[in-house]
Amino acid sequence: MSENLTTPFETAIQALFSSGNSIQKKAWDRFCSMGLPKNRDEMFQYVRLRDLYNRSFLPFSCAEPPKEPLPGLVFVNGVYRKEFSTFPEGVIALPLTEAMTTYSTFLQNRLETLLEEEKDPFALLNLALFSEGLFLYIPPKKVLEAPLSLFYYMDPSESQVAAFPRVHLFVGKEASVTLECSMAGSMNNSWQNSVLDLVLDEQSQCTLQFTSHEIPSSWHLEAIRASLKRNSSLKTVSANRGGATSRQDYHVQLVGEGAEASLFGVWHLTEKSHHHVHVLMEHKAPYSRSNQTFKGALTGTSRSSFEGKIYVHREAQKTEAYQLNSNLLLDRKASANSKPNLEIFADDVKASHGATVGQLDPDSLFYLKTRGIPESQAKRMLVEGFLLEIFDHFSSPHFKQKAYDNFFRPA
Predict the structure, then answer these.
(1) 271 pairs with which residues across the strands?
(2) What separation in angstroms does the CA of 195 have from each of 102, 116, 250?
(3) Tens digits of per-residue pLDDT, 136-168?
(4) Burial of 373 (0-12, 13-18, 19+ CB in 10 A)
(5) Chain-wide mean pLDDT for the chain?
């Protein structure tokens, strides 16, 4: 960050920073050294950063949760509130500052690793500015049959709030968990900059499910970091309606032999909404597998981008890796940018990548209209048919229905 503060955004985040702990101070120093991203940076080429940098944000407040309790793990204005949270017996869910003492050994090591490897300035900013995060630990061989719910609640009575939710999830050996993440309340011209970090031990399984509702004035930046050990499995599914701008940044490392990761995402953008996805999938061990499938439908003057890289290290022989981004443009002024790519240094690999950008098939539309279906309904049916493939990957029926109802509600 520049020494001479030139934008309201820079002034606001400088005011938000306090000395914090040693890790937070290191994160702040590294963020300042790296500086705010610019549009010439490949990762942020299509993100309208100028709009963000012209905004000013206030510190979080200790707002109360909604009158009706949220059944799960609860963040309020970016702060984990244990007193408002519920979770099953046998699961450990602690404020991050408390866990830094109780589980200091591997949590401290993990934070140091993330600090050293992090390339996204906004993820560093989250580490520097978060007030209270969540440490979530699933003990070895603990299999949770019912999903855990995680709510990011923003007080609708406040506006221009900066929130920095931070979650560290450790899944023990042969354990299994499904985590359902959703927004609650209203962001009201605010900015949420969240980080969700995962470490999966050997033969463990984790499913992450995300849904968000469209708030035209809001910014939502989300970083997902994951490290997978031998024969562990990660699956993520997200449904996004956009906002002023939303962005998901994935960095998944398959560090153990036989590790597997599947990322699925879908977005339906309207009016001036923006949504951007950046993925780095690193294969570091033999017999690892990955799959990425992302789909988007865009109307109005909305805009999306997808940049995905599969990086196969020399030692990751017998890797299988696949990547696909497909987009449907429903208005002439909508725009979708796609850049899938591969970097492979092993010589025994199965890998493919692809991207498509197109419009509704006129023959299919004509066929439906000849069957007496009004044109608006026929278009809706074709769009749903295009996107529903991703919804089939939601593992819990109630969350799938929640995501569907939010996703396909009338614009």
Answers:
(1) none
(2) 21, 16, 10
(3) 999 999 999 999 999 998 877 777 888 999 999
(4) middle
(5) 91
